[in-house]
Amino acid sequence: MRQRRPIRRVLPGFGLTMGFTLAYTSLLVLLPLAGLFLATARMSWSEFARKALLDPRVLAAYRLSFGTALAAASLNALFGFVVAWVLVRYRFPGRRLMDALVDLPFALPTAVSGIALTTLYASTGWIGRWLEPLGIRVSYTPLGIVLALTLIGLPFVVRTVQPALADLEVELEEAAASLGASRLATFRRVILPSVLPAVLTGFTLAFARAIGEFGSVYFIAGNLPMKTEIAPLLVVIKLEQFDFLGAAAIGVVMLVASFLLLLTINGLQAWSRRH
Fold it and tell me: What DSSP designation does 122 have?
């Protein structure tokens, strides 16, 4: 009976790599998050609720942060798919330049993007001066926050959907068309089921990125309490006021809410893969 030759792997065995993975993630992720929870453990429940759950200013910041993040991620899921489709399916002059510009928000400091957006969309800016007579205000409004979050979240959707579209065979669409399917039916029954997991993944990444965004939003929001003040900015304000427990309490609420939302989205993504 022939003996099976051991499989040689480039990386060491499971035990060593798993141990390194657990140590690495614990030092960089688990320990800082655990420290955040331990900081709030010194507070009583009534004090925690007063600082992080019942304060009207804090609740307004939660609504603004999660609402604008959800709106920006939804816009990116739609238009990011369109951008990825154009880059994958068509060849045109300037395509490589457009493909490179998609990654620009990754490299651009968020403060720079916030200043640029404020300069463009302020009431005296190049674009804002034309929108102001129409009654459309962008800077210092929630609309400006959505615009900033859409800018920084677009690459996450495009780069996630691009490989899925590249792997989708054009012959499947041609076969559907030859069988009499309309363009809408082809998109709904052939294209969308194949790329939906990638779109949901891009949506999740863009949503998670938008929740914690600070730099680009800080300049265009105006930071008006109860109106355009986001939760990350409120954390910074609490720290500047030496209210460390209040900042930690807000951070814990945002962390738990973000985790639950991302867990729900990942569950929907797993369901879409199975069905």
Answer: S
Q: Is 20 helix (H, G, I), strand (E, B) or coil?
A: helix
Pick the closest to residue 156 from 67, 75, 241, 252 (CA basis).
Answer: 75
| Domain-located, residue 27 | no
Q: Would residue 256 count as lying in a domain? A: yes
| Tally of CB atoms within 10 A around 19 | 11
User: What is the domain extent for residue 151?
Assistant: 46-274
Give me the amino acid identity at 201.
Answer: T
Stretches where the chain sits below pLDDT 50 are: none
Q: Is residue 75 part of a domain?
A: yes
If residue 152 lies in a helix (H) or strand (E), which one and from where to where? Answer: helix 142-167
Residue 44 CA to residue 49 CA, distance in Å, equals: 9
Closest-CA residue to 261 (of 205, 187, 216, 183): 205
The number of distinct structural domains making up the chain is 1
Q: What is the pLDDT of residues 131-188, one digit of tens each?
A: 888 888 888 889 999 999 999 999 999 999 999 888 887 777 778 777 777 778 888 8
In angstroms, the Cα distances linking 65 to 5, 16, 36, 96, 243 are 56, 41, 20, 34, 21
Q: For the residues of 205-244, what is the DSSP string, one character each?
A: HHHHHHHT--HHHHHHH---TTTT--HHHHHHHHHHTT-H
* 242-253 tens-digit pLDDT: 888 888 888 888
Q: b or e along 165-184 (b: 16 or more beta carbons within 10 Å of the residue's beta carbon)?
A: beebeeeebeebeeeebeee
Q: Give dist(CA 44, CA 50) in Å, integer.
A: 10
Q: What pTM value is reported for the model? A: 0.84
Tell whether 29 is covered by a domain.
no
Specify the CATH number for the domain of residue 226.
1.10.3720.10
Contact present, 260 and 202 (Cβ < 8 Å):
no
